């Protein structure tokens, strides 16, 4: 896609992008926050997923755990989004050709769609199975998808630096 | 003497594997990251509960006990993967100040955090309010783990 490539090249050439990329401090610090932010997003949502799978905190209703955990997940995601955006701006042109980066973006899309589907289908009837040790099959499927997708996102995120073109 | 041990480690077969192979190091590092996600999230939630910011309707002893498998299991996986990463350059890391700081902080955090979490888990009274001691402990725990993470990130730059 030539227009997208031109846009990435344009972003890459801006003073803002260049300053992050070339500063000895900016990029490592932003990347450090991005890496540590993984715990806030994935670690917290994993607790909810493990509850859905009946592996953790079975005493507590699913909706209660969701209500307690998800605000932190969202806060973490805000940090990840901003730091991720800054990193993407800094490496706009090189990331365009990086297949690990492209796969990661697609996975991020999917990991967003997964809870949407979950929320508007099986979670609508959560009152029926809130207290159950193990959630219904489709809820468990959403939990497994969540864990698998986030793990893959972490893997491909790490691979970005290993893939040159 | 410690340096001698690190030098011996650097001559082992596994050390050469970790040093020379691109993929083995990357795979172990990714394992370290995945474990960090689970471990870090569980530590965050336990410490947030001790600070009174999360799971406010559950007693602290319940949260501390419920998340112990994740924090304890997580730290074991992180230590094992971390050790293999270290084997990629035993003498080099020995001399790296960021690595030295990370290990020093890690030893402190390991004892401090798990003493705190196990102590909180033992509470027989189903306590909803968090005593000041637990709050201070949780804040210190978070500070330690965050510093460990940052020191780890700095290893590659020092």
Account of the 3D structure:
Chain A is 79% helix and 0% strand. By secondary structure, chain A is an all-alpha fold. Chain A has one domain. In chain A, helix 3 (26-52) runs antiparallel to helix 4 (62-90). Chain B has one domain (2-155). In chain B, 81% of the residues lie in helices and 0% in strands. Chain B contains eight helices and no strands. Chain B has helices at 2-10, 13-20, 22-51, 60-66, 68-86, 90-94, 97-122, 132-155. In chain B, helix 3 (22-51) runs antiparallel to helix 5 (68-86), helix 3 packs antiparallel against helix 8 (132-155) and helix 7 runs antiparallel to helix 8 (132-155). The longest helix of chain B has 30 residues, at 22-51. The model of chain B has no long low-confidence stretch (mean pLDDT 93). Chain A binds chain B through residues 28, 31-32, 35-36, 38-40, 42-47, 50, 56-57, 59-60, 64, 68-69, 72, 150-151, 154-155, 158-159, 162, and chain B through 22, 26, 29-30, 33-34, 36-45, 48, 54-58, 62, 66-67, 69-70, 146, 149-150, 153-154, 157.
Summarize the structure.
With 165 residues, chain A is an all-alpha fold. Chain A has helices at residues 2-13, 15-22, 26-52, 62-90, 92-96, 99-120, 126-129, 137-159.
Counted beta strands of chain A: 0
In helices, the fraction of residues of chain B equals: over 70%
Low-confidence stretches of chain A: none
Indicate the percent of residues in helices of chain A.
over 70%
Tell me the major beta sheet of chain B: none
Structural class of chain A: mainly alpha
Order of helices and strands of chain B: HHHHHHHH
Q: Unreliable stretches of chain B, pLDDT < 50, 5 or more residues?
A: none
Shape of chain A: elongated
Radius of gyration of chain B: 18 Å
Determine the N-to-C terminus distance of chain B: 24 Å
User: What average pLDDT do the residues of chain B reach?
Assistant: 93
Task: Give the strand content of chain B.
Answer: under 5%
Number of strands of chain B: 0
């Amino acid at each position: 896609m030539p227009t997208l490539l031109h846009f990435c090249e344009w972003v890459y050439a801006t003073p803002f992008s260049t300053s992050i990329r070339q500063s000895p401090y900016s990029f490592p610090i932003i990347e450090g926050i991005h890496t540590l932010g993984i715990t806030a997003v994935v670690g917290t949502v994993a607790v909810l997923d493990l509850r859905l799978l009946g592996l953790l905190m079975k005493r507590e209703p699913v909706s209660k755990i969701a209500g307690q955990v998800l605000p932190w997940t969202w806060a973490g995601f805000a940090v990840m989004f901003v730091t991720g955006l800054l990193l993407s701006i800094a490496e706009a042109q090189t990331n365009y050709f990086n297949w690990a980066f492209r796969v990661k973006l697609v996975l991020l899309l999917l990991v967003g769609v997964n809870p949407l589907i979950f929320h508007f289908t099986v979670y609508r009837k959560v009152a029926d199975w809130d207290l159950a040790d193990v959630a219904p099959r489709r809820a468990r499927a959403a939990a497994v998808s969540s864990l698998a997708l986030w793990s893959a996102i972490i893997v491909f995120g790490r691979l970005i630096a290993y893939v040159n073109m | 003497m410690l340096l001698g041990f690190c030098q011996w480690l650097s001559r082992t077969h596994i050390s050469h594997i970790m040093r020379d192979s691109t993929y083995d190091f990357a795979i172990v590092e990714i394992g370290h990251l995945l474990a960090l996600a689970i471990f870090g999230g569980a530590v965050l939630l336990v410490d947030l509960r001790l600070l009174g910011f999360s799971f406010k309707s559950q007693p602290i002893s319940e949260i501390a006990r419920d998340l112990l498998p994740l924090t304890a299991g997580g730290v074991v996986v992180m230590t094992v993967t971390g050790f293999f990463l270290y084997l990629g350059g035993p003498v080099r890391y020995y001399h790296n100040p960021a690595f030295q700081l990370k290990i020093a902080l890690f030893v402190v955090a390991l004892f401090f955090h798990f003493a705190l979490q196990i102590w909180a888990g033992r509470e027989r009274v189903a306590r909803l309010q968090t005593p000041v001691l637990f709050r201070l402990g949780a804040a210190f725990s978070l500070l330690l783990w965050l510093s460990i993470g940052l020191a780890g990130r700095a290893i590659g730059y020092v």
